[in-house]
Structures are given as C-alpha cells and as structure tokens.
Design brief:
Layout (H helix, E strand, L loop, with lengths): L1 E3 L4 E6 L1 E4 L14 E3 L11 E5 L16 E2 L2 H4 L7
Antiparallel strand pairs: 1-2, 2-5, 3-4, 5-6
C-alpha cells in the first residue's frame, strides 16, 4: 500500500513475488516497489492495482457512494499526478 499524499489516496498493489520497499519509505515514480508475481488464482504474472480513498479499499457501502474504491485508469493513462 502506498499513501499518495498529493491526491489523498491509497495505491494498492497485489500479487507481487517480492516487495522491494519498507514501511515508511518515501517513493516516487522511479522507485521499484515490487517484483511481478503470479500469486492468486490466475496463475500467470500480473499486477492487481487499486486506488482507494481508505486503507481497506472496501467497495462502496449503500448510502455512501464515492467513499472507497475509485477508477485507477486515469492514473494508468498519466492523467492524474502520481505520488
């Protein structure tokens, strides 16, 4: 989990074979944070990337739209500044 102070969001990465950063370490867009893995049920190398407004990344509960998971595609396209 990477805290993005600029955008007040959490960036979450799953299915790594290894994590290359430590808790509290400052990172930027040039920092390698993990090694691509094949964990999970898919069985092939991939990254599961989420952007969330809270640390748990929970889906939106009824009556609280926009609280949690948000669309990561603008980050992947470079439309939103990364931490």
């Amino acid at each position: 989990i990477i805290w993005d102070a600029r955008n007040q969001l959490y960036h979450r990465y799953f299915h790594n074979d290894a994590v290359l950063v430590s808790v509290g370490q400052r990172v930027d867009t040039t920092t390698s944070i993990g090694v691509l893995g094949a964990t999970g049920s898919e069985g092939f190398p991939h990254v599961h990337f989420e952007v969330s407004r809270n640390i748990n990344g929970d889906p939106e509960p009824p009556g609280n739209p926009g609280c949690c998971l948000i669309d990561p595609q603008p980050f992947l396209r470079g439309e939103v500044p990364l931490p």
